[in-house]
Each structure stands twice: as C-alpha cells, then as structure tokens.
Amino acid sequence: MMGSGTVSMARSGTGLRGVWHALTLAVALPGAVVAPFPAHAAAPSTGVTLPEEVRALRGTELGVDPAAALRHIDDVLARAARDRSIDAVDLLYAKAVRASALSTLDRSEEALRQFTEVEAELTRRQVPLNPERASLLLHIGSELGSLGKLDEAAAYTARALDLAQRTAGKDSPEYAEALYGLALLDYQRGRQNEAIPKLVEALGIARAQASHTGENLEAPAEYGITLAALQLNVSDAETAVVTAREAADWAEQHLPADHRVRVAAAQQLGAILSEAGLYAQAIPILRGTLDKRLAILPPDHPQVAMSFHALAFALDNAGMRAEAKPLYDRAVAIFSANPDKLQAKGLSTMIGQQARMAMWEGDGSHALALRRQALEVARKASATPDDQVVLTAELNLAATLIDLSRVDEAAPLLDHARAGFLAGTSALNKRRVTAATLTARIGAVRGDAKTAETTLRQDLAPLRSRLLDRATSRKDVLAMLSEFRQPFLTLARLGIATGRTADAFDALQMANIGDLQGAFSSLAMLQNDYGPEAREAIRAYLALSAQSRQLRKSLDQALAAGVSASDEGTRAVLDGQIAEVDAKLREADATLGRLVPGYAALTAVEPARLADTQKRLAHGQGVVLIGADDQGLVTLLVTRDAVAVGTADIAARRLLELTRALRGSIDAGLIDNGAAYDRAAAYALYQLIFPASVRPLLRRVTELQVLAPGNLATVPFAALVSRPPHGSDADPQALRKTRWLMRDHAVRILVSAAPLPVRSRLREDTRSFAGIGAPVLGAPDAAAMRSGDLRSAALARLGSLPGAETELRNMARAFRGDSQLLLGPNATETAVRHAPLERARVLAFATHGLVGGALRGVVEPALVLSAPAVPSIGDDGLLTASEVAQLRLDADWVILSACDTGAGESENAPTYSGLARAFIAAGSRALLLSHWPVRDDVAGRLTLRTLEGARGGLPRAEALRRAQLDLMKDASVDGSAHPASWAPFVLVGG
User: Fold this and answer.
1) d(Cα 290, Cα 715) in Å, to the nearest integer?
2) The pTM is what?
3) Contact (CB, 8 A) for 314 and 279
4) In angstroms, rounded to a whole number, what is the distance separating the alpha carbons of residues 14 and 202?
5) Do 627 and 491 meet the contact criterion of CB atoms below 8 Å apart?
6) What's 806's domain CATH number?
7) Are 587 and 581 in contact (CB under 8 A)?
8) Are residues 830 and 734 in the same domain?
9) 562: number of CA atoms within 13 Å, CB side?
10) What is the per-residue burial (b if ≥16 Cβ within 10 Å, else e) of 944-957?
11) In 214-343, alpha helices (H)
12) Which of 583, 603, 623 is the last residue of a domain?
C-alpha cells in the first residue's frame, strides 16, 4: 500500500517556485502545498499614477487566483509599455512578478525565460545588488530545479545565498530562503542528510525574524512542513511528527483560519501522523483540512484530491474502509482528469487502492479490472518492465487472481515480480515478503502445503528476528507489523493445514504483536516527561533509530540499483554499518529500560511457546488466539492437554458489519433500557470465532483466556450467543433465556500469550481501597474533541461525571479498613503521584478515558483528572499510560470505570494494550476495564460483587461471570437483561 500521498515539500511564499519534486513516501505528487503571496494589490483608484501601479505590482498575491493576477499584471505592463515615464528598473521587477505568476501556473519554461531576461538586463544596466536580486537569482535556480537542471540550479542558488549574506545578512529572510532552496536541491540529489541541517538553520532564522518583525509569518510554517516531510523521508517518523506539529501550531497562532499555509500545515501534520500510524490523531485533522480546501479551492483542484486521498488512507488503515472507498474514488477521478498533475506511476498506485477496496467489498471482478488497469498505467509510465512500480502492479494483480482461485494466470506474473524483488530488495522488503507469501499460497493450492509452510517460515525468519530484536525500535515494530500481519497469518493457516500447531501458535502471536503494546510508542513526544539523564537517553535512542532506518533504506536503494551484482563491497560496508548501529541500539534500549519506569515491560513482545503455555494452564482453562485477514478468521484453542484449530471464510467487510452490529446494539441499550440486542449477529460471530472443529474442546473449558486482534477486541465475548436464539431481541425474558457465552465460560482478556511481569508485594500494611475520579471539568461540549482545540481547553469541555463520586464513595463503604478517596478538585496528577497507592489492594478510577489522539498532543491512552489552575508538564490533567507505568502499585485489582478506557488508536487498533499494560507494569495483578460508558446504577454493583466473589475465593474471571449473571437475572433493575447493562466490564490480566 502506498502512503497517504500528501506528505510534501512546501513552497516558499517569498519566491520559491513551488514543489520541484514533491516529497512523498511512495510516489511524487507535485503541488501538494500551495502557499500564498503578500496581499493582492487593489485595483487602481482615482489619482494613482501608472508608475505607482507598476511599483505596486511587487505586492501582488499569486496564491489565491494566479490566473487573475497574471491578467492584472499583463494589463498594467501593456499600458506601461506605452509610457516612457516608467522607471526601467521598476518595469524589470514588475516583469519578474509576471514570471512568478507564470511559475505559479506551472508554466516553468516561460517563467525561466522571463526571469533570466530580467536578470540579464539588470546586470547590463549595472543595477546595484540588493536582497531583491538575491530573490531573483533564487527564482531562476528554482525554475531550473523544477526542470531537472540541478547543476545550473545549484549555481544560481549558491549565488543567491552569497548575495543574501552580503546584502542582508545571515539572519535575514532572504538568506533563510536561499538555504531552503539549497536544501531542496540536496534532497533532489539524494543528499537528505545534508538537506536537513540547512532546513533546521533556515527554520530557526525564519522563526526568529518573524517573531521579531511580525513579517514573513508564513515562512516558519512552510519550512517546518518541508523539514517534517524530509525527516519522514529519511524514516525518522517520530521527529517528523514533532516538527509537523510545531509547524501547524505556528500557523494556527499566526495565520488566519482559511490561510492556505495554515491549511497546508494542518494537512501535512495529518498526513505525517497517518504515516506514523497515529490514525486517531490524523483523521480529525485531515477532515478539517479537506473541508477547508473544499471551501477555498475549485472542487477539481489537485490539492483537493490530495486531501481526499490522505483522509481515505487514514480511514482505510484505521479500519473504516467503507468511508474510505468513496474518497479514494474521488481522488482518482480528479487525477485521472488531470494526468499532468500527478505522475502516472502514482496514479497506478492509487488505482490499486481502489482495487483493494473493491476486493474488500467482495466485488472480485471489479477488483480484477482495476488491477489490470493499474498494471497498464504502470507499464506505460515505466521505461523498463523491471521497474519497481510495474513489479508491484504485477504482484497486486497476481494476489487478486489468487484470491479468485485463478492461480495459473497468477503464477507467471508472480514469478516475474518475485524475481525482480529478490534481485533488487532486502529480505525485509514488504513486496519481497508479499511475493514469498503469495508463492506459498500457490504451493498450498497446488497440493504441497508442507513445502509451502517450510519455505515461507524460512522466508519470514529474518523478519521475525528483526521484530523481536531489541535493536528494532518499538515504534518500528508497530509500523512493521501493520505491513506484515498478512504473511504471518498465511503462515498460521499453513501451519494449521499441515498439523504444525506450534508454528501456527507462534505465527498468530507474531501477526498480533502490534496489539500487545500501546505506551511508549512516541518517545519523541514523551521525552520531556523525564529527568535530564532519561531525556538524553531518549534523544540518543531516537537518533540511532533514525540512523538505522536510513541505513536500511540506503541498502534497499543500493539493491534496487543492482549493487548486489556489481559491487558487493558497497553492500558489505552498509551491512557492517547496520550491524554497528544495531549493537548501539541494543545498548541504548537497555539504558532506557533502566532509566524509564515501565519501558521494558511495556515494550516486551516475545511470543510464548505452545508447550510453555500448556504447562501454565490449569484444568478447565483455555487460551484462544484469533487472527483476522481479508480471507476470514483463524482460531487456535489451547488447553493443558489439547489443541483445536479452525478457520472461517468471511469477507472482511461482513466481519466488520457484524462487530458494528453488536456495538450498535450496545449503544442502543445504553440509551433505551427496552432496546433490542442483535442476537443473530452475536450468534453468527460465535460460529465464526469458534468454528465447528473448535467447539468440542471449547466445551471442556470453563475459563476462556482471549487474545483477539483489531476490532474483534472490541467485541464483548461474554455477550456472544452460543445457541440459536429464540423470541424477540427486545424481550427481557427472551434475553434472560439466551445461551450467552458467559453462561458456560468465564472470560479473561490477555494482552499477551506470554505471562506479563508483575511486581512482588511491596508491603503488608495495605489499605483496602483507594478511589480516584469525579474530576472538575465542565458542561459537556461535543466540540471539545475537535483537533483544533488546545488540550487544556478541550479537557474542560469533556463534561463532568455526576455519578462518579457516588460510585467511588459506595465502593469505599463496602471495604473494611482505611480507604482513601481523591475526588473532584483533589483528583489531580500531583495528588495521585504523592498518594501511598502501593498500600491499596483495590484501586478504582471513575473518570473519562481517552484514546491516543483524542485530543491534540495526546499520543497515548490517558485518564482525565482535574487540572490545576496553571497546568504544567507534570500536572496537566491527564494521567497517560507512560505516567501510569511510573506509579508504584501493589494492587490485586485496578478498576477503570471510564468512558473509552478499553478503546485503542483506531478501529483496527488494540483495545487494552495501552492502559492495561501500564497498570500491570506499575504493579497491578488484574484490571476491570469498561468497554463502554457504564450506567451509574450498575457500575458499583458489578464491581463490588466481582470483588466480593474474588475475596471469597473464586477465580477473578469466575467472580465477574457470577456478578454478570446475578445482574442479568434481576428483573427489578430496568434493562438488566440487556448486555449493555451486564457486560460492560472485561477482566484483563490475572
């Protein structure tokens, strides 16, 4: 899958010719950012002389309507040509403005001729050198760069830099702009590491100058946009996110809401967040920029298409494909109608996105037609049949043919593509791995599943090692698994088909590794939360991570250029450099584990062995691992003495519809106690997750431990239906008679198949209970979650929770001993940090829970507390997952009765990993998390009865099951028969 397609180099509002070659992740998409020029010159009023009109042309705005601006310039110049009183130098600079208008309209060759004519005439006339001449030279360099004449462009740009230094100084905007131009040239020549320092210096100058003078306010945002894009291009996504956020913040503070640079900065931030996998943060930003661009640009403008595509990409990867599909279609329609605005290779990739959507919808014939179209476009645009874009299009077409059981047609396409990727990519290249996976699928279809499984396991061995190597940054692990989930699921299917269940057990865990961690996914954003030594360790770690990514990228580029065949020495040097950096990364990772509390526990991803898992299970316990892909579901159920496996074919869209049907039923039940619950969907899901081959072993399980991926983790397993339902879905008696899964099985959620580390008891003189919540907020406001809100302002508008204090006080009264309550204004981060929470056996939070990205700057899951009058880094009203991991706990239970505490980064994201792993790392042995907002009248009852049952000797999962059954049977409680009332809590951990 290509990237969002909108992370791009910016143009300078003071003269650069725009995007020479747009910097994107997988394909150049020129014109992604259009920056405005100074305010448009007003129409001449009575009394304005023609010479004054000519001089006023220098203030012409070209960014809003360059065609209209050009007509105005031509009108003035036509009248000026007949007036000998016009100053010759003024007329020359007016012609330079005309050249800028031509440049803005992508008429580069005309613009270059006019710029060079103006420069030649100024030189002939010996006009004194000044900063304006530096800008003119820079324009010429920019046009030459846009036409690919890099040596000439570099010469003019270097002259511009020297002239700007001599006439305006190194702290001038002209000097910064020339540095920016040189950085773009470095990028075009593949010298990214030389470009970044120039951009950093240019950005610093621009910020200082704009802050001091109040002029050139666009430049810091524009340079920041470009710097972020380049950082992303060298695989430093974490730093790119920080830089893009700073650029967007600057634009928001200094530019009007509809200013194009402000919109472009927000678009860039959204695109980079999306590329970094932070979809929940990206989506609201990208929605906002799309709305802005639709308001200020023509509907067929290329930038509108960029916004459609960027939002579609984020929605797609966040699991919201139904919403993404029409946006992809609109983007392709715009670019298909304007082929000169997008490289044909990029169009091929975008058509491929449409094909994926069609396949997801179950329309194989349309998907196949689109794949063929994408390949045709790629072949026409490529000079050789071995171009990577052609190979990718062949690979994708082969995959679709295999999905449609047309393996004989797929085989020759796949053979050619795989040969190209084997020759020109490393073992960890996504397309190379995909080709190996498809080859294994063909082998299995042709009757040799055993060889296919063995070969694919060998092909995936380098990838598995890389994912488990502590030299791989935790951020990279998450990013890689989003790309490599499918190969491991294919390996799991082959392991099941060949009876190699231990291999299938391992492969399913590898496919779901991304669901096992949540905190510390953005160290760059968190580094200020720690002391100087830890901050320095984080900076060093991030720098090494970026260096590692860049070296691996260089190796891939060298292989693509044929270095493996022509210069083994180059590869050996790169391999040696990679090994050296990896060794340093392992040391840096160990240092972080020592300095950053909870880091090691929260980032561990080593899968469990099947034999070890079986040994730790007691009689009656079972672990179920679930995998989901476009082919359907894979289920592996493990007990102490047996293993059962099964698969279920279901289109990804249909699976999503079923999970959404359940959640929709829950939402309805929260609003209306008499609402229906979609038991048909619950029964269908039960049959898919536990196919017939698994159910006999399931009947021997009394405690079911579940490890589920993506949106399946949002399913309330206790509320699945194990037998065909009878009666009305809205009839309480029919609901009570339903054979819910929890009637036969206590359910416990795992965040890892391997046991998570738990701290030993800290002391014996424990309190019985500590309750924290009911923060001081304000009236609910739906706008509070907008991406444009500052965090402190948005927190105040989340809305107070009137039942939270009562809930916590009721829980406290039910416990003997010395309980502690931190409520209302006392429920602050500072109070939590200083409270003796290690003495609490039961710790409860009753407040809002936020997913990562719910508010700007919130990169982790968090619990909302009361903010002080003057928020600080250490006390800002949010207790984040990494801050939780630093607490010292000794709790048998942590209860999170909060809205969204179970939710993850997106619809495809892990549900429990962030907060759950954080509390376990801090010393909790088990958690009760709410899947959805809990009714005040049942929250206390469910939690108290669960705790009482566990205190009476019941296993924790069984205690929760009995509390649920007890509530469901109680007809005196309105709506008690509906799962929305009795199934909100899930048990995580012990």
Assistant:
1) 32
2) 0.77
3) yes
4) 13
5) no
6) 3.40.50
7) no
8) no
9) 3
10) bbbbebbeeebbbb
11) 218-233, 237-254, 260-275, 279-296, 302-317, 321-337
12) 603
